[in-house]
């Protein structure tokens, strides 16, 4: 257990000058959530990378609402190191979904960034590959299926039938 | 067409898209390789031909329904998907499953690993033109399928997990049968390990091919046997032990060569370790209940955890909003990140003829059926290749390098379908 | 084979052309029934059906001894075996493969997803079952179907071809740009449009097959 704590403290110390808030989740003792501002994502990732802390597991996004009821996208960069998972997290307001790429630091992040672009409409500045990864070629622009406002099958199906 | 390409494209720059007719899993990829002469200089990937929208569909289903949905993300590692999801749900609900259920989950996971590695061994051998090995390993894989069927009542998608535990118990009779079958399997696996280590043609296609150093693998976040073949100590069963592996630990198999041959060796040795583990654990499996009650609604919260699927780390990120349905289920499968590794690093600098084996080396659930391969020249003189043709191109290329006259090879001629 | 040709030469048709046609037809159907060549396409499956289909060519089941051959090119195939729900992305490709196959062509849909979309039926990227896109001759249910059920599916299809062929009806054009083929009972369609009989009758035989292979499955 102390081993896990050491890892978590290590991650916290690397991000101490960037983090806005640090949370140790209660239901999973091997995790740490570090909240940063959207423009600091790249610095945070670089800090972990420069200290050789873990590897990028994936980038997750989710559609949620803030405490005052505004819709926003949660963006999570999961890093795994030994027994622990360190998550760098940020929130992007729906009308300003822009974040810097981290591909110049970690090259393999390109598939995750393409996924976030496609399914959530997050604009990733400087990402090397902007071609479609998952959705069909003739999927309409500006429709992001993982947003809560997307009602799924009926819309997509209807669109498909009308367009043909 | 195959032979023309070998002779004539010494200096042309081609883009070679491979895919998308993949009979493989969630991530049938469409690769685009840019080649200069023989050498691949750039690579890109396009998924989505089997993109169904499972993550979105999970948001409109109940927790129990999602369990059965995610088991069908991939039919080969369905138990890993089910375990990864349900252990997150159980962490959110704050329940601890009984130790016997944990151990049964671990045993099921190891049986699944045996079936998956044998499947992969056959397919990878097939990509290298070694069809006898494909047939042998798939014949022996049927033993594992029999075990799965006896145990869980289905050969694929066996649904061992239920929310809060497992549904089937391991009886003494089943354990006895299992031991006999594992003994036979172990004997066969020893033979395969000899083939991989000693066979000259096999070594010619695998040793020092697709090598990636430890440093770079670590940086790119490779997981599973692909990473362990380069000496990276990264195994979720050891690092973040989950159901069963926290009670009885398992050993990590490592190799330090980092090439294609090391990936074969690591996977085969993992099979031995799985057999040893199942045997050991069957002796001391704890008594007790199989499941505990699982609530219909789960308190709001977040959970993220991983499972060591046969292909590597399978990561699930689950959010609950306090209702009967999950708020978000994020799946990151092992093949995806290993593909990132391959595409961005391994492929570059290698011969086009080695691509089938290199791609098969990461075990992206390759099945040996038809895939379309587009060869698009800079002047838009597009050529259409099937995956089968690329495979043959690879085999023929290496045969010619060894000095065989391929046109004399009657079997290949017979198999030529175009 | 000798029997067949004998039979043909004793019963010549009115014109030369139809004699040749009928001979060729009979030889074709004879060879088709004895050795159907199949192409496999995954239109959005979870891989479960695919690995089970692949076991068919490996030593335990070995359908090549029965003359069934899995091969790569749609232009050489008699039977298209489709696994999985049809995703939007793979739909066009599935139709293209279907259109590339020479007449007469037959389709087997494997697994629950091939029948209705299965667990993925309401996903945003899923069009539906295989029958929503191309006409299907035989459905094999199961998640995934056992290899024995798949062999039974092929046998059912062959029995169907054999029965259908004796009527000497050619199948009509089956190019579907945007097919919306309702699954209707065979009797109603065959009375009105005999030319499209085989392509439009996924119901009667297939239901029967569902029952048989379900029984076998359990």
Automatic annotation (TrEMBL), chain A:
Every NADH:ubiquinone oxidoreductase 30kDa subunit domain range: 34-151
Entry-linked Gene3D superfamilies: NADH:ubiquinone oxidoreductase, 30kDa subunit
GO molecular function, one term: NADH dehydrogenase (ubiquinone) activity
Pfam families cross-referenced by the UniProt entry: Complex1_30kDa (PF00329)
PANTHER family: NADH DEHYDROGENASE [UBIQUINONE] IRON-SULFUR PROTEIN 3, MITOCHONDRIAL, NADH DEHYDROGENASE UBIQUINONE IRON-SULFUR PROTEIN 3
Family stated for the protein in its record: Belongs to the complex I 30 kDa subunit family.
Descriptive protein name: Ni,Fe-hydrogenase III component G
From TrEMBL, chain B:
NADH-quinone oxidoreductase subunit D domain mapped to chain residues: 129-293, 297-371
Binding site for Fe cation: 77, 368
Entries under Pfam families matching the protein: Complex1_49kDa (PF00346), NiFeSe_Hases (PF00374)
Assigned keywords, A-Z: Iron, Magnesium, Metal-binding, Nickel, Oxidoreductase
Molecular function GO labels: ferredoxin hydrogenase activity; NAD binding; nickel cation binding; oxidoreductase activity, acting on NAD(P)H; quinone binding
Binding site for Mg(2+): 55, 331
Signal sequence region: none
Cofactor: Fe cation; Ni(2+)
Residues that hold Ni(2+) according to the record: 74, 77, 365
Xref: SUPFAM superfamilies: HydB/Nqo4-like
InterPro entries: ComplexI_49kDa-like, NADH_Q_OxRdtase_suD, Ni-dep_hyd_lsu, Ni-dep_hyd_lsu_Ni_BS, NiFe-Hase_large
Coiled coil location: none
Protein name: Ni,Fe-hydrogenase III large subunit
Species of provenance: Flexilinea flocculi
